[in-house]
Amino acid sequence: MAFFLKNSRNIINNLKSKVGFLRLMKQSGDCCYCSYLNNINHCHFLPLTTNSPFVKQLKNPDSNTPKNSPFLVFKRFESTTAEKPITSVPNDEGNQVLDFPGGNVIFSPEMRFISESPSVHTHCYRVLDDNGQLIRHDNFIHVSEEIAVKMYSNMVTLQILDTIFYEAQRQGRISFYLTTMGEEAINIASAAALTLDDFVFPQYREPGVLLWRGFTLQEFANQCLGNKADYGKGRQMPIHYGCNKLKYFTVSSTIATQIPHAVGAAYSLKMDKKDACAVTYFGDGGTSEGDFHAALNFAAVTEAPVIFICRNNGWAISTPTSDQFRSEGIAVRGQAYGVQSIRVDGNDALAIYSAVHAARRMAVNEQRPILIEALTYRVGHHSTSDDSTKYRPADEIEWWRMARDPVTRFRKWIESNGWWSSEAESQLRSSTRNQLLHAIQLAEKVEKPPVKELFTDVYDDLPSNLREQEKLLRETFSRHPKDYPGDVPL
User: Fold this and answer.
1) How much is the pTM?
2) Separation between Cα atoms, residue 266 and residue 309, nearest integer Å
3) Which is the catalytic residue, given 79, 175, 253, 421?
4) Residue 253 designated active-site
5) 382: annotated active-site residue
6) Active-site position among 167, 398, 447, 475
7) What are the C-alpha distances in Å from 66 to residues 142, 246, 323?
8) Is the separation of the CB atoms in 404 and 347 below 8 Å?
9) Could you tell me which residues are beta bridge partners of residue 279?
10) If residue 99 lies in a helix (H) or strand (E), which one and from where to where?
């Protein structure tokens, strides 16, 4: 223990000398790049740190701002050392102010309890109205025709992917599936705003991020069918994707475990001085897990470049948010942990793109965590094991499917720009459907991974208990050959 504590102190002292525990910038006149979206209409990161607008950054997001620019030096914390005397001085109102570790404490003769709810509701940032028309022309990061068309094409592809694989599960061709219906904008628009250097820690409803990064339809099919070409060697359930080359960590069914992992990875990127961040996705149900709270605190204290993206779709399987928490959504929780946060219309692709783009610049350039709460609605069932009409009305689902569909909304916008047509729509849907059906047929013909792969990739030398399990499994196969698939090589 003494050795551990001694080395811990050495590490901390080394970090102090290299990184520094820096003081919070004064708000009197200092510019703060992290808030270049704060003062644009309905786009507020919590808490606000400056009153200076950065509209020019929205109009020219690719401008090169030097990292050593004066207004990019963020001095957030100054530790109170043992040698420094703790002083107490009166402020302008006559109340005593104590220089306390972590920040000044203002004493007051009045007994005040902090309200359980904010006096002003958190704004939800949006760019497009429900008809796909711009609300304003200066409150978002503009995208080119090429990026916009790719975003829309990927959203349509994701819809088709979900429809066909869901049908394949119902036909018994795969064992399980889970759709992203209603949440396509969060998937694709957030991925478009990141770079390929960023590490992704998904939950299980983000295949669109993989799709954007170049994961092919054949690779999706190989994983869902669990064949020999599957990167997970058939050891994971369908839709539990993972890809090293695309920096997409393998999906885990356990809720929220990926959130602290992302913070650890982000801290590593910071220590290695990488121009990248970690991004983690999770649902509103994930915020009810302890891992979420530990991760936010971990990220805030270490000032890790990580983006937390919460898909608040109102339901944790059959549990509504009203039964999960009493706070006003998720974004306000970031403020409690000292993390800048924003609430965004998750069905607005341009709003998601702009918010994630801004969040990434803050995370990388300022070395800080950001929390994004994307309000959306899960139009599909939680999974093929769920019937959501048992706990929510069918007409509510249909209303979100028709009136608030993010794909239709974005299509109206690109059509209004003259970037899309009905002919292009028909060609895209027909071509994608045919390609996916062909990929599934090919994946079904590829042999399954051999039984021995169940026991590999963990230990260099297989321990005795696993060798015994492998032996018993092979003996069971031999005794009951009709009870097991015949296409699994022994």
Assistant:
1) 0.82
2) 14
3) 253
4) yes
5) yes
6) 167
7) 22, 28, 47
8) yes
9) 200, 307
10) strand 96-100
